[in-house]
Each structure stands twice: as structure tokens, then as C-alpha cells.
Amino acid sequence: MIFCPGSITAFFSTLISENPLLSGSYGVGFTIDKGVFVEVEKAEKTEIIVNGQSWDFPTVQYVVNELAKDDVKVKIKMELPVGCGFGMSGASALATALSLNNFFELKKSFIELADLAHESEVINKTGLGDVICQTFGGLVVRKNACCPSKAAVERLIVDVNLDFLVLGKISTEEVLKDELKRKRINEVGMRCLEEFIRSPEFDNLFSIANRFSMETGLIDDEMRDIIEAVESNGGKAAMIMLGKAIFAYNGFDVLKEFGNPFKAKITCCGVQLV
Amino acid sequence: MIFCPGSITAFFSTLISENPLLSGSYGVGFTIDKGVFVEVEKAEKTEIIVNGQSWDFPTVQYVVNELAKDDVKVKIKMELPVGCGFGMSGASALATALSLNNFFELKKSFIELADLAHESEVINKTGLGDVICQTFGGLVVRKNACCPSKAAVERLIVDVNLDFLVLGKISTEEVLKDELKRKRINEVGMRCLEEFIRSPEFDNLFSIANRFSMETGLIDDEMRDIIEAVESNGGKAAMIMLGKAIFAYNGFDVLKEFGNPFKAKITCCGVQLV
Fold this sequence. Notes:
homodimer, Ribosomal Protein S5, domain 2, Alpha-Beta Plaits, four-stranded antiparallel sheet, 9 helices
């Protein structure tokens, strides 16, 4: 079975070109020890099953269309919610690509499969940087915006337990469709990235991520209140890009007042066999 | 500063082609939480310093020749011995490539830098698979023999503390120069890889690695005695490829009878910023 970690983006700026392999996002994100598990089996009719239910899942379907030599059932177990900034589309696409490669003995290279998953995310407008993060694993600094094989990345050593609270979904596509918003995101995101690269330490992630969400206007009052509550209690918190969701350090008790938080750990593992 | 983990190979088979990017080794290896730290600084004359001493280090020099725009001092801190199967040449080359890329703002992609480090290892005959393992990190199954950008790899989740004992060096070049020995290594190595892929579990690593070292004749009586001693005491142990060295699980006390063992942990982190 293939496991692919969820990926959380703290801040980003986008680059969309006609070539999906030259499209992506600059920024900083990290993989966590919760994600998706994928298994492929022979089937009469191709089907994508997520947590027991048949899904119309274009980002995975694209990968299936490109790689499957025959009808298959793609069984995906998802540990995190979709559309909330955990990179579940990218994780599903990447783990499916690796699973199909094994199942049909395609002998494609790891990076080639990662590029395909990235391409599918870009084309289906479900993500721009998650697959890069999930290919390499860890706290990943994306210093250019493109596919895994062309990625200029740095990984940082971190070993931290975080707390997460999901309040709702945000459509990446909807946000990026707004030209004015996207221009602002790109400007602020690039400044944030430069700042993080100057002192690439985990602690700086929260303050820069907060500046990003405020200056881009992506944060709302509810999330701002929660982050302030965590901070008043001595913790750190920031908004997850792009989800109506929060990641926090030392924030579990405060987050409990606002919903049902869960814990996960930053890991330096990317997609892997389990 | 860039850290690159040491890489230990359990069994392998080689493929040498005229193109270094299509040369490498099939096999199974893993990264550990000890390795090399590299820093680059401006200098009057290019120099490679390892643990405070000036070294003639062709595998690193090749990378410097390819990437440095000016004279630099490459300062390498090595936590593990050279020539004993810990992938110190590959680690140094890879970490130097990433450091020079940052220092001269070359904006090369991660995989491009990894390919260069691999190329240098192949050309200088210091290793064939370590850079792949160090690029991705973890317990890495190399299903083809080539450079990182063309690598078909799988990573396995493992979280294990191991014990290591170094008895002496083995020259990879010397072993691989012997045509008959290399043919035998390739035959046995390929069978071992197929067996491991059928049941890719950490526990199988030791038994398959032991079959490999026996059937290839790479092991000597001293190492065999030590492995048997660890096993009689309820642990597991195998020879490191290619070093006169042992890796063991639950073997520290027994290894102490034969020398000065040390501990390290399998990590899923590859080369990274620290």
C-alpha cells in the first residue's frame, strides 16, 4: 500500500504558465504524519473509491487515464478532509500514480510519476505546490514554481507536534480565479518567502504566515480570533492555505473551545510504501 | 548549513554504462541520522576541508569544478568514517552541490544538483547508489540503476534504532574492478532485490543481506563471527556494503566485545537545511 502525507502550505505565490510542468507555487509548506492510503485492484469498470464511497475525482482520474492499462478500482483511505488545505488531492494523485506504476509494472521513474501528479493538480486546479512537498517530504521551501523534476527545494529539519482545527472549506480555484486577489497573493507571498529564506527557522513560520494571511485578506475574523486566543495562551497559530483551517503549536486546549481539533506531527517523509 | 545523512547499503547489484547518469546500482539501503555538514565560504584559493584538514577529495572537487563561479572553501564536518560503507563521498558531494547552489545563487533544481552528485560518484568510482538514497531519504528500494532524476524508488516507513561497528575499510573500486566478483554480485544482488520486493519488511533486510554477503563472498570470518554472536544473543546483524563494518538491531552489548560501536537511527529525511 502507498501512503502519501498531507501537506500544509503556510504562505505562497503562484505562477501559472501554459505548460503545467512550469506552473506551480513558490512558498513554504510541510508534510504531516496523516494523509492518504491508496491501493489498486483489478475491476470490471474503473472506479475511484474514497473512504468507501464512489467519487468523481478528476485529479485522480487524470492519473488513471494516463497510466492504467486496464480497468481498476482505486481505493483511497483519506485521514484528512478535502478542500481544507491538507493537500488531499495531490496526495491522492501521487499515491495513485505510484500504485498504478507498481500494479501495471510500468517501471516509470519516481520523479516522472511525481511530475504527472503535479500536472494533474495544475490542470484540475486543485493545488499548485502540494505534490512537490509530498514528493520530498519535510518542511519544504519551494524556491521556484514548477513540477518536482524541476523543483528548487530546500528541506528543513523539524520535529514538532502540531494541533489542527478545521472550520470549513475554501476553494483554491475560486480564490485564484480572482485576478486582483491573485496579484496581491503573489506580491505578498514573494516577500514572505524572501523573509523566510533569510532566517529559515520553524518559529518564524507562524509570524510570516500570519502576515501573509492578513495582508492578502485571506483570513476572516473568526480565524483571526482563534489565532489571537491561542497566542494569548502562550501558543502559536496561523491559517492554513487554502482552507478555513488553523495549524497551531501548543494550542490544543484553546482550539478545543472552537471545535474539534486533532494532532499531527511534521515528518520528513514524503510519499512512501507501508 | 546543509546536512546530508549517511547511507548504508544492505545488498546491491551494479550497472555501469558509458553514461554516468545511466549507471548506478539496484538494491536496498537506508539513511541514518548521522552524516556530513557542509558550509561554503569565499576563499583566495579553492580548498576542501574535512574535519579541519585540507583534503584531496575528487568526488567533491568534481562538483566544485562544475558549480563554483569563484574560489571557495568547502568546509565539511563528517560524523562517520570514509571508505566504510556510510556513503560519505556521496553525502559530501550532494551537500556541497546544494551549498554551492545557494552560495552562488545558481537557481538549479534540486534533482539537477542530485544528478550532478551522482555523476561525480560514478565517475570517481566512490559509490553507485548512495546519492539516490540521500536524495529521497528513508529505507529506499532502488528498482533501477541510474541517477536521481531517472530513479525508480520506493521508500519504506521504518523507525528503528541501529547499532554500528566499524572494523576497517573496503575499497568499492577494488571490489568492482574484479570482473568475476562483480558478475557474482550482480547475480546474487538481483535475486536478493526480487526477494525483498516480494516482502518488503524491515526484518527481512538482515536475512537477505546475510545471504548476499555470504553468497558473494564479500564477508570474512571476523564479520561472520560477530554477526553470529549478535544473533546468539537475540539480535540481528549484517555486513555493510561496502565496508568492513556491521549494522545491527539490538546488538550494542555484543558489538562492544569486538570494538567501539555507535548508535544511529534510520530516518526518512534526505539531504536538508539545518
